[in-house]
Amino acid sequence: MKKIIVARHAETNYNKLGLVNYDPNVNVYLTENGIEQAEELAKELKDKAIDIIIVSDLNRTRQTADIINKYHNVSIISDSRINDIVNGFEGEPVDKYHEARDSNPDRINVRFNGGESIMDCNKRTNDFLNDLQKRSEDNILIVSSNNNMKQIQIIINNLPLGEILDMHIKNASFFEFSL
Asked: Per residue in 40-70, pLDDT tens?
């Protein structure tokens, strides 16, 4: 049985500004407060068994993982399937996306500006989780974003996907489960 820890990246400059980011080429980085949050998270996780760390392609998850990895010195690999939802609102206020999504009668399947739906993101996250079972490592840390952590909680707890709309994950928080 695999033990999985899922952590959300620490605070970023875009979190402070309330902006959407899913493009790995945009300069989104941990703030000073975010670095402190990641250091606290690293201390919380330092005694946990971790064989490998898997991050998204987004710099904020790599920065958070690098800080955590000071206590583990394991390989860090990236997997684009746990990138944040490509919601079509890159660089725009998160509230603008939420307003557009919430005004649509099909909030789970709606796509904007060539982006993906919550359902699309759910499918790729589920595919990622299925492939985790094939990995040789027994203790895996995943560092990702708010949406992906919610997707993982929905999948592992077999919850209706619509519940994702009412969930929020704090920066630099984590949860554990067995797979």
From this structure: 999 999 999 999 999 999 999 999 999 999 9
Q: Which of 58, 40, 26 is nearest to 172 (CA)?
A: 40
Q: What is the mean pLDDT of residues 150-155?
A: 97
Mean pLDDT calculated for residue range 119-139: 97
DSSP the chain: --EEEEEE---BHHHHHTB----TTS---B-HHHHHHHHHHHHHHTTS--SEEEE-SSHHHHHHHHHHGGGT--EEEE-GGGSPP--S-TTSBHHHHHHHHHTSS-TTT---TT---HHHHHHHHHHHHHHHTT-S-SEEEEEE-HHHHHHHHHHHTT--GGGGGG----TT-EEEEE-
* Torsion angles phi and psi, residue 49, rounded to 5: -70, 125
Q: What CATH code is carried by the domain that includes residue 46?
A: 3.40.50.1240
**Structural domain of residue 50, as residue ranges?**
3-178
Query: What is the mean pLDDT of the segment spanning 25-29?
Result: 97
The total domain count for the chain is: 1
pLDDT reported for residue 129: 97
